[in-house]
């Protein structure tokens, strides 16, 4: 391991001559004012943060329909035969109650299944939520991106905590407040979902 020595007079430090000695290398820490400008060490400057820089708008995420939580193999096969491959495609084709009702009739399923899948697909559009947390949000009572955007953060986090304690008897499994805050922020950026 290389050693580092600071060479300076202990009684009166001369900061302009402070150097770090590494084996076969001597580097000045402070530029010597007597050096010509072209010989002085350059300092790196970070570009100033612009207040005019706006955050990039987020886009709806798209997942394979098979990644939806709680989807049985039989229902997955049914959705594939109906032409659904992705969550965004399912969400786009189930925007209205009439569309959801017609799809349930076509699939010969109870409408509650189509409504559940539509809600999961809607919530999965949020990048930080995805298919990982959309089921958790649904079990908490959040059924749309708009509802998530409108829910106060402390209330939502309390609901999530209660759910984790009631179902798993562990509060450490609850997503951290910072993650939940990101979900709400991204939901606000995505905007309304139902017409």
How far the N terminus sits from the C terminus, by CA atoms, comes to 66 Å
- Output the number of helix runs: 8
Question: What spatial form do the alpha-carbon principal axes imply?
Answer: globular
Structural class: mainly alpha
Beta-strand share of residues: 5-15%
Order of strands in the sheet with most strands: 1-2-3
Poorly predicted sequence stretches spanning 5 or more consecutive residues:
1-11, 17-36
Got a strand count?
3
Description:
The chain has 195 residues and is mainly alpha-helical. Helix content is 45%, strand content 5%. The chain contains 8 helices and 3 strands; from the N terminus they run E-E-E-H-H-H-H-H-H-H-H. Helix 3 (97-107) crosses helix 4 (111-124), helix 4 packs across helix 5 and helix 5 packs across helix 7 (153-168). Residues 1-11 and 17-36 have low confidence and may be disordered.
Layout of helices and strands:
Elements: E1 5-6, E2 19-22, E3 25-28, H1 73-81, H2 87-92, H3 97-107, H4 111-124, H5 130-140, H6 145-150, H7 153-168, H8 177-190
Antiparallel strand pairs: 1-2, 2-3
Could you give a short description of this structure?
The chain is mainly alpha-helical and 195 residues long.
Descriptive labels:
about 200 residues; mainly alpha; 3-stranded antiparallel β-sheet; 8 helices; 3 strands; about 45% helix; disordered N terminus
């Amino acid at each position: 391991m290389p050693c580092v020595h600071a060479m300076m007079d202990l009684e009166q430090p001369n900061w302009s001559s402070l150097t770090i000695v590494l084996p076969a290398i001597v580097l000045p820490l402070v530029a010597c004012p007597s050096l010509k400008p072209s010989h002085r060490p350059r300092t790196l400057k970070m570009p100033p943060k612009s207040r005019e820089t706006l955050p990039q708008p987020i886009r709806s995420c798209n997942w394979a329909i098979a990644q939806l939580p709680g989807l049985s193999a039989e229902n997955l096969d049914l959705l594939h035969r109906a032409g659904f491959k992705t969550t965004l495609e399912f969400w786009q084709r189930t925007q209205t109650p009439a569309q959801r009702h017609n799809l349930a009739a076509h699939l010969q399923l109870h409408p509650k299944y189509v409504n559940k899948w539509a809600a999961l697909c809607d919530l999965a559009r949020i990048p930080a939520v995805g298919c990982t947390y959309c089921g958790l949000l649904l079990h908490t009572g959040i059924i749309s991106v708009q509802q998530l955007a409108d829910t106060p953060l402390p209330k939502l986090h309390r609901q999530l905590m209660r759910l984790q304690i009631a179902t798993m008897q562990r509060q450490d499994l609850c997503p951290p407040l910072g993650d939940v805050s990101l979900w709400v922020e991204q939901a606000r950026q995505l905007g309304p979902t139902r017409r």
